[in-house]
Amino acid sequence: MDPNKQIKKKKLGVKLPVYFLSLILVATVAAGVTFIFTKGNQLSFANRGTGSDESESTQVITDLNKVPGSKNIQAVYEIILSNYIEDISEEDLIEGALSGMVNAIDDPYSQYLNIEETETMDETISASFEGIGAEIMSMNDQIVIVSPIKGAPAEAAGLLPNDIVLKADGVSLAGMTATEAVALIRGERGTTVTLEIQRGSQTLTVDIVRDTIPIETVAYELSEENSEIGIVSVFSFARPTYDEIVSAVEDLRGQGAKKFVFDYRQNPGGLLDQSLKIGNMFVEDGAVLLQTEEKNGNPYIIKASDKEYGEFQVTEPSVMLIDEGSASASEIIAGIMKEEANVPLVGMTTFGKGTVQSIYPLTEDSELKLTVAKWLTPAGNWIHGEGISPDYEVEMPAYAFLTIIDSSATYELGAVSEAVKNVEHMLSAVGYSLVADGYYDYDTSEAIYQFQSDNALAQTGEMDEETSVKLVSELRAAISENDTQLNKALELLESMSD
């Protein structure tokens, strides 16, 4: 890349979207503020609208005494307090009961949050936070990587969507909530966390040095191959994202761009209102942007409106890039592009998150996060667990999935392992002729020696830490230079008329 043509990025001083770390689309479409309050043995739920909708509030009241088996809750509580052999507090029992009740619905996006978890999730960040920079979720009692944040240590270390995090610093994450896992994985800048990762049948250990994670939502540049094509990369959906995209497109237009690639790969989602405003850019007033469907309700249709969502329009030929890490709000955009805007999708099938969560404050130090609705594409398709398929399926090179070097493996003459094979594949990808057979023989040592020589490293023929870091860096450069998905998007745009 021309060093004078750097992607333009702007660091943003914003509050991290609520529940950004566990991939939630937080919204109550057309419902405004959602809350919960308690009174005696009754729980009263209300969705209170704002403005003219407030008179249409609904309320559902459930008397717990009328629920079969509810008396057992009180009985178990009293028996444990009176007879359990160890000391246990009343607060811990209540916390466990509440968590267990939410866990019973078996929904990875619903969760009871106590004061510590609420503080972690609601943390106000001026311009950044400290950690490894990865979106995670709890699924089937496992902690799964949804997407690493662009430019963060997790991405640099090679974490990929659908990687399973088995352990953090030797502590098993099995059965933990996403919030509990975040508490173990996050930490101060400069400290190291050791993660045990399962990718398919392979288990790897990777050391990641935590850093300050800037909240950047948009970057852009002109294509080096065609100066009339602008590339806009959108990393997440935060409060400034719509305005950032508008600025990016206007700047690129000023530089001569007449066509656009909108890159939503590895974008885990965020705020719903931003996705609606962004989707509105590509369609005419009255087009369907989204449908939502609450319990026992009919779909509620949200339509494009320049008056409501902004008048800015993108009318130039465009292509959208998606992959397995495109989730939630990114999938809302993909649905609009595919079904309403006639914008082709290039890449791989998206993550598949088609639900909406609301936040119910319980007390000053706890709250309930609950899945309250499905969201559907403009055509009424529910993509949950399925994702949105591209119009042009394009895989990245196989070596794009080799970006972890197992720090716990042995790399010496005679060693035989999948970790050695992984390193051999990396060396082959960056231009060193080598058979990737998993056997650390003299050919492997010689390839490493030559790599070290070419990169001004200590020439030992051994896979030390400095060599590992440089090899991963070179591999990432090779992936960037052979971005098959972006190349396909550029090819499509070149065939489209202005």
UniProtKB/TrEMBL annotation:
GO terms for cellular component: outer membrane-bounded periplasmic space. This is S41 family peptidase. Pfam families: CtpB_N-like (PF22694), PDZ_6 (PF17820), Peptidase_S41 (PF03572), PG_binding_1 (PF01471). GO terms for molecular function: endopeptidase activity; serine-type peptidase activity. It comes from the Bacteria. PANTHER family: CARBOXY-TERMINAL PROCESSING PROTEASE CTPA, TAIL-SPECIFIC PROTEASE. It comes from Jeotgalibaca porci. NCBIfam families: prc. The chain crosses the membrane at residues 12-37. One of its GO terms (biological process) is signal transduction. The lineage of its organism: Bacteria, Bacillati, Bacillota, Bacilli, Lactobacillales. Keywords: Hydrolase, Membrane, Protease, Serine protease, Transmembrane, Transmembrane helix. Residues 112-186 form the PDZ domain. Belongs to the peptidase S41A family. SMART domains: PDZ, TSPc.
